[in-house]
Amino acid sequence: MIKLSKGAVPAVLQANAEAWTKAVVDKLARGEKPTKAEKGRYGHADIKGALVAETNGKCAYCESKIRHVTYGDVEHITPKSPIPSRWFDWSNLTLACDVCNTEKGNFVGDHESFIDPYNVDPEEHFWHMGPTIFPRPGSDAAIKTESLLKLNRPELVERRDARLKGLLKHLDAIARVIDAETRRIMLADFLEETRANKEFAALAREIASRAGIHAAA
Ligand SMILES: [Zn+2]
Questions:
Q1: Ligand 1: distance of its center to the CA of 64 in Å?
Q2: Total count of domains within the chain
Protein backbone atom coordinates (compact mmCIF):
# COMPACT_ATOMS: atom_id res chain seq x y z
CA MET A 1 0.00 0.00 0.00
CA ILE A 2 1.30 3.47 -0.84
CA LYS A 3 0.20 7.00 0.03
CA LEU A 4 -2.46 8.40 -2.29
CA SER A 5 -3.63 11.96 -2.86
CA LYS A 6 -7.10 13.11 -3.78
CA GLY A 7 -7.46 14.75 -7.17
CA ALA A 8 -9.92 17.55 -7.93
CA VAL A 9 -13.61 16.78 -7.44
CA PRO A 10 -15.07 15.71 -10.82
CA ALA A 11 -17.48 18.33 -12.20
CA VAL A 12 -20.42 15.91 -12.27
CA LEU A 13 -19.98 15.17 -8.57
CA GLN A 14 -19.42 18.82 -7.69
CA ALA A 15 -22.71 19.66 -9.40
CA ASN A 16 -24.80 16.76 -8.13
CA ALA A 17 -23.43 15.33 -4.88
CA GLU A 18 -25.79 17.32 -2.68
CA ALA A 19 -28.94 16.44 -4.64
CA TRP A 20 -27.90 12.78 -5.03
CA THR A 21 -27.23 12.51 -1.29
CA LYS A 22 -30.51 14.22 -0.38
CA ALA A 23 -32.47 11.88 -2.65
CA VAL A 24 -31.20 8.74 -0.90
CA VAL A 25 -31.16 10.15 2.63
CA ASP A 26 -34.76 11.40 2.28
CA LYS A 27 -35.95 8.05 0.94
CA LEU A 28 -34.24 6.12 3.72
CA ALA A 29 -35.74 8.51 6.29
CA ARG A 30 -39.19 7.71 4.89
CA GLY A 31 -38.44 3.99 5.18
CA GLU A 32 -38.27 3.60 1.40
CA LYS A 33 -35.50 1.86 -0.51
CA PRO A 34 -33.49 4.01 -2.94
CA THR A 35 -33.41 2.53 -6.44
CA LYS A 36 -30.30 0.85 -7.77
CA ALA A 37 -29.74 3.82 -10.07
CA GLU A 38 -30.04 6.30 -7.19
CA LYS A 39 -27.61 4.33 -5.06
CA GLY A 40 -25.10 3.75 -7.84
CA ARG A 41 -24.61 7.29 -9.09
CA TYR A 42 -21.07 7.37 -7.70
CA GLY A 43 -20.24 4.91 -10.51
CA HIS A 44 -20.58 7.66 -13.17
CA ALA A 45 -17.87 7.28 -15.81
CA ASP A 46 -16.27 10.66 -14.99
CA ILE A 47 -16.06 9.81 -11.28
CA LYS A 48 -14.64 6.37 -11.95
CA GLY A 49 -12.18 7.86 -14.45
CA ALA A 50 -10.91 10.35 -11.88
CA LEU A 51 -10.49 7.56 -9.33
CA VAL A 52 -8.61 5.39 -11.83
CA ALA A 53 -6.29 8.36 -12.49
CA GLU A 54 -5.51 9.05 -8.84
CA THR A 55 -4.92 5.36 -8.03
CA ASN A 56 -3.06 4.63 -11.29
CA GLY A 57 -5.62 1.92 -11.98
CA LYS A 58 -4.46 0.00 -8.92
CA CYS A 59 -6.36 -1.20 -5.88
CA ALA A 60 -5.90 1.50 -3.22
CA TYR A 61 -5.29 -1.21 -0.63
CA CYS A 62 -3.37 -4.15 -2.12
CA GLU A 63 -1.76 -2.27 -5.04
CA SER A 64 -2.79 -4.89 -7.60
CA LYS A 65 -3.11 -3.56 -11.12
CA ILE A 66 -6.77 -4.23 -11.60
CA ARG A 67 -7.73 -2.32 -14.68
CA HIS A 68 -6.28 -4.83 -17.15
CA VAL A 69 -8.34 -7.69 -15.71
CA THR A 70 -11.47 -6.10 -14.23
CA TYR A 71 -13.11 -2.69 -14.16
CA GLY A 72 -12.41 -2.34 -10.43
CA ASP A 73 -14.96 -1.27 -7.85
CA VAL A 74 -15.63 2.23 -6.64
CA GLU A 75 -14.83 1.80 -2.97
CA HIS A 76 -16.31 3.76 -0.07
CA ILE A 77 -13.55 4.20 2.51
CA THR A 78 -16.26 4.71 5.11
CA PRO A 79 -18.66 1.99 3.95
CA LYS A 80 -21.83 2.65 2.08
CA SER A 81 -24.50 0.89 4.10
CA PRO A 82 -24.30 2.53 7.52
CA ILE A 83 -23.60 6.09 6.42
CA PRO A 84 -25.58 7.20 3.33
CA SER A 85 -24.57 10.81 3.83
CA ARG A 86 -21.10 9.85 2.58
CA TRP A 87 -22.14 7.82 -0.50
CA PHE A 88 -21.31 10.69 -2.84
CA ASP A 89 -18.58 12.35 -0.77
CA TRP A 90 -15.51 12.67 -3.01
CA SER A 91 -13.11 12.36 -0.07
CA ASN A 92 -14.72 9.02 0.76
CA LEU A 93 -14.29 7.42 -2.68
CA THR A 94 -11.44 5.41 -4.12
CA LEU A 95 -10.79 2.38 -6.33
CA ALA A 96 -10.40 -1.15 -4.95
CA CYS A 97 -10.15 -4.65 -6.35
CA ASP A 98 -13.24 -6.76 -5.79
CA VAL A 99 -11.46 -8.95 -3.21
CA CYS A 100 -10.31 -6.08 -0.95
CA ASN A 101 -13.70 -4.42 -1.42
CA THR A 102 -15.47 -7.61 -0.31
CA GLU A 103 -13.10 -8.33 2.59
CA LYS A 104 -13.49 -4.80 3.93
CA GLY A 105 -17.26 -5.09 3.76
CA ASN A 106 -19.02 -2.73 6.14
CA PHE A 107 -16.08 -2.21 8.43
CA VAL A 108 -16.04 1.32 9.80
CA GLY A 109 -12.50 2.10 10.87
CA ASP A 110 -10.76 5.00 12.53
CA HIS A 111 -7.06 5.86 12.44
CA GLU A 112 -6.40 3.32 15.22
CA SER A 113 -7.95 0.42 13.33
CA PHE A 114 -7.62 1.06 9.61
CA ILE A 115 -4.86 2.39 7.35
CA ASP A 116 -6.54 4.87 5.03
CA PRO A 117 -3.89 5.51 2.36
CA TYR A 118 -5.18 9.04 1.78
CA ASN A 119 -4.70 10.08 5.39
CA VAL A 120 -1.58 8.28 6.52
CA ASP A 121 1.53 7.03 4.76
CA PRO A 122 1.08 3.23 4.67
CA GLU A 123 4.83 2.77 4.19
CA GLU A 124 5.25 4.01 7.78
CA HIS A 125 2.93 1.22 8.97
CA PHE A 126 3.87 -1.78 6.81
CA TRP A 127 7.08 -3.41 5.71
CA HIS A 128 7.97 -6.51 3.74
CA MET A 129 9.87 -9.68 4.52
CA GLY A 130 10.16 -11.36 1.15
CA PRO A 131 6.74 -11.17 -0.53
CA THR A 132 4.90 -10.98 2.80
CA ILE A 133 3.59 -7.73 4.25
CA PHE A 134 4.08 -7.22 7.99
CA PRO A 135 2.84 -4.50 10.29
CA ARG A 136 5.69 -2.32 11.53
CA PRO A 137 6.21 -2.73 15.28
CA GLY A 138 3.72 -0.78 17.34
CA SER A 139 1.12 -0.23 14.60
CA ASP A 140 -2.23 -1.60 15.75
CA ALA A 141 -3.85 -0.09 12.67
CA ALA A 142 -1.51 -2.10 10.41
CA ILE A 143 -2.18 -5.34 12.32
CA LYS A 144 -5.93 -4.83 11.98
CA THR A 145 -5.81 -3.70 8.35
CA GLU A 146 -3.64 -6.63 7.24
CA SER A 147 -6.04 -9.02 8.94
CA LEU A 148 -9.21 -7.34 7.65
CA LEU A 149 -8.13 -7.05 4.02
CA LYS A 150 -6.12 -10.30 4.06
CA LEU A 151 -3.15 -8.53 2.52
CA ASN A 152 -1.20 -11.80 2.60
CA ARG A 153 -3.76 -13.91 0.78
CA PRO A 154 -1.96 -16.58 -1.27
CA GLU A 155 -2.64 -15.10 -4.69
CA LEU A 156 -1.22 -11.71 -3.61
CA VAL A 157 1.86 -13.28 -2.03
CA GLU A 158 2.42 -15.22 -5.25
CA ARG A 159 2.23 -12.09 -7.40
CA ARG A 160 4.44 -10.10 -5.03
CA ASP A 161 6.94 -12.99 -5.07
CA ALA A 162 7.16 -12.83 -8.87
CA ARG A 163 7.65 -9.05 -8.64
CA LEU A 164 10.32 -9.47 -5.97
CA LYS A 165 12.23 -12.01 -8.06
CA GLY A 166 12.16 -9.62 -11.02
CA LEU A 167 13.52 -6.79 -8.89
CA LEU A 168 16.30 -8.95 -7.44
CA LYS A 169 17.28 -10.15 -10.92
CA HIS A 170 17.48 -6.51 -11.99
CA LEU A 171 19.70 -5.69 -8.97
CA ASP A 172 21.94 -8.66 -9.75
CA ALA A 173 22.41 -7.41 -13.32
CA ILE A 174 23.25 -3.90 -12.02
CA ALA A 175 25.85 -5.34 -9.65
CA ARG A 176 27.55 -7.18 -12.49
CA VAL A 177 27.67 -4.42 -15.11
CA ILE A 178 31.05 -2.77 -15.63
CA ASP A 179 30.33 0.15 -17.96
CA ALA A 180 29.42 3.23 -15.89
CA GLU A 181 26.94 4.65 -18.40
CA THR A 182 25.12 1.33 -18.75
CA ARG A 183 24.99 1.09 -14.98
CA ARG A 184 23.50 4.59 -14.72
CA ILE A 185 20.76 3.66 -17.20
CA MET A 186 19.99 0.43 -15.37
CA LEU A 187 19.75 2.27 -12.04
CA ALA A 188 17.35 4.77 -13.60
CA ASP A 189 15.27 1.85 -14.91
CA PHE A 190 15.22 0.36 -11.44
CA LEU A 191 13.95 3.60 -9.96
CA GLU A 192 11.13 3.57 -12.52
CA GLU A 193 9.93 0.41 -10.77
CA THR A 194 9.30 2.40 -7.57
CA ARG A 195 6.86 4.82 -9.19
CA ALA A 196 3.27 4.96 -7.96
CA ASN A 197 1.92 3.59 -11.25
CA LYS A 198 3.82 0.30 -10.85
CA GLU A 199 2.24 -2.73 -9.25
CA PHE A 200 3.38 -3.26 -5.63
CA ALA A 201 5.39 -0.02 -5.65
CA ALA A 202 5.76 -0.16 -1.84
CA LEU A 203 7.70 -3.42 -2.19
CA ALA A 204 9.92 -1.99 -4.95
CA ARG A 205 10.60 1.13 -2.84
CA GLU A 206 11.67 -0.97 0.09
CA ILE A 207 14.03 -3.06 -2.05
CA ALA A 208 15.51 0.11 -3.62
CA SER A 209 16.04 1.59 -0.19
CA ARG A 210 17.73 -1.54 1.12
CA ALA A 211 19.98 -1.62 -1.96
CA GLY A 212 20.90 2.02 -1.36
CA ILE A 213 19.33 3.16 -4.64
CA HIS A 214 17.76 6.60 -4.35
CA ALA A 215 16.41 9.08 -6.85
CA ALA A 216 18.88 11.85 -7.69
CA ALA A 217 17.97 15.09 -5.88
ZN1 LIG B 1 -7.05 -5.06 -3.50
A1: 6
A2: 2
Q: How does DSSP assign the chain, residue by residue?
A: -------PPPHHHHHHHHHHHHHHHHHHHTTPPPPHHHHTGGG-HHHHHHHHHHHTTB-TTT--B-TTTS--EEEESS-TTT-GGGTT-GGGEEEE-HHHHHHHTT----TTT---TTTS-GGGTEEEETTEEEEPTT-HHHHHHHHHHTTT-HHHHHHHHHHHHHHHHHHHHHHH---HHHHHHHHHHHHHTTSTTSTTHHHHHHHHHHTT-----
Q: Does residue 68 have a pLDDT over 70?
A: no
User: If you measure from the C-alpha of residue 214 to the centroid of ligand 1, how many angstroms do you get, rounded to a whole number?
Assistant: 27
pTM for the predicted model, two decimal places? 0.92
Q: Mean pLDDT, to the nearest integer, of 113-122?
A: 94
In this structure, the answer to whether residues 125 and 197 fall within a common structural domain is no
The domain in which residue 119 lies consists of 11-149
Look at residue 2 and tell me if it is in a domain.
no
Is the residue at 200 inside a domain? yes
Domain end, chosen from 149, 172, 198, is at 149
CA–centroid distance, residue 125 to ligand 1 (Å)? 17
Q: How far is the centre of ligand 1, averaged over its atoms, from the C-alpha of 14 (Å)?
A: 27
> Residue 177 Cα, ligand 1 centroid: separation in angstroms?
37
- The answer to whether position 131 is within a domain reads yes
Quote the mean pLDDT of the chain: 92
